[in-house]
Design brief:
Length: 333
């Protein structure tokens, strides 16, 4: 549905040009909720703005539904953009217009709909985002979560098939973030809308996404199925993001107190293996001691993902590790 090939976007600075997006390639398939994550300055927002040509790229290609964006005439690009809604961290609502009129803006701009058709569409999406009672309210009368719901309704008003989300929950509290993510999942499932979201929060990624790409210094350094990347991260930045998402400061302090981290392991179990006594069996079978420092179970894509941080010592350590690898992803911290 969206194919990015060798995409590069440069910006001029006082010290020369920098590649905000550097030779990026990725594919978003229909029905995906595709998360792009990275720390501040990684190039995430620049990349997503290239998806609809809000930001003109210097090299490479962006192909949406078989059409390369730069090859399109202006009117054809505008038509394609109508199929790609976008929401932002700052909501981008018109403060002088009420909720109803904010949602109606794209509908009026196309000049294709009658007044009755506009009314029906706006009311339809007000109901979807659960803001029917707020249609006459103004943005300054709304909470942050309500403003984002208005922005989502506006983005969907033209029945877009792709929704781009640029840090859409970053300004919201955890409870409101959860409600917005649940709404996005509903939109993806019921309206078959493909979603691409930018975030620096792994919690957002693991809550809603089925695929992930990790950015650093303008490059994609790791990508794949969320379960695979989460349970077996390869790049250092990905490991850090997963670590920050899973573990508390207290665990970090415990690890800091350990003089030797050589025998500290992170183990991930997926699915039914979460309920198997793997470590108990290993301890009985081999001459090893297992000290569990941390454990939790996440539900990702409807599958259980169990994680343990353990200290394993003993003369049969290597044999024990090999057997654990047959059932789980295990790596030294």
């Amino acid at each position: 549905m969206i194919e990015i090939k060798n995409l590069t976007k440069k910006f001029k600075t006082d010290v020369g040009f920098i590649n905000a997006v550097d030779d990026v390639s990725l594919t978003v398939e229909q029905g995906d909720i595709f998360g792009i994550i990275g720390y501040s300055g990684a190039g995430k927002s620049t990349l997503i703005r290239c998806f609809n040509l809000l930001e003109k790229y210097d090299q490479g290609s962006v192909t949406v539904e078989g059409k390369e964006l730069k090859s399109l005439a202006k009117k054809d690009l505008l038509k394609l953009r109508q199929n790609m809604g976008m929401i932002f961290q700052s909501f981008n609502l018109l403060n002088s217009a009420n909720v109803f009129d904010n949602i109606a803006i794209p509908l009026k701009n196309t000049k294709k709909f009658t007044k009755d058709e506009i009314n029906k569409r706006v009311l339809k999406f007000l109901k979807l985002v659960d803001l029917e009672e707020k249609q006459n309210a103004y943005p300054n009368e709304l909470s942050g979560g309500q403003k984002q719901r208005v922005a989502i309704a506006r983005a969907l008003s033209l029945d877009c098939k792709i929704l781009l989300c640029d840090e859409a929950t970053s300004a919201l509290d955890p409870k409101t973030t959860k409600s917005i993510l649940n709404l996005l999942k509903k939109i993806n499932k019921e309206f078959k809308v493909t979603i691409v979201l930018i975030t620096h929060q792994m919690e957002v990624i693991k809550t809603i996404c089925n695929k992930i790409a990790v950015m650093e210094k303008g490059k994609i350094i790791e990508s794949g199925n969320i379960l695979d990347v989460f349970s077996n991260p390869k790049a250092t930045t990905t490991k850090n993001l997963v670590f920050e998402s899973l573990y508390s400061k207290e665990l970090y302090d415990i690890l800091q107190d350990k003089k030797d981290l050589e025998n500290i392991f992170s183990i991930f179990f997926i699915g039914d293996l979460v309920e198997e006594p793997v470590l108990s069996t290993i301890q009985k079978k081999y001459d090893v001691d297992v000290n569990i420092l941390f454990g939790n179970i996440e539900l990702i894509l409807g599958k259980k993902l169990g994680n343990l941080i353990v200290e394993i010592t003993g003369k049969d350590l290597d044999k024990a590790i090999l057997e654990i690898k047959e059932k789980a992803n295990i790596r030294r911290l």
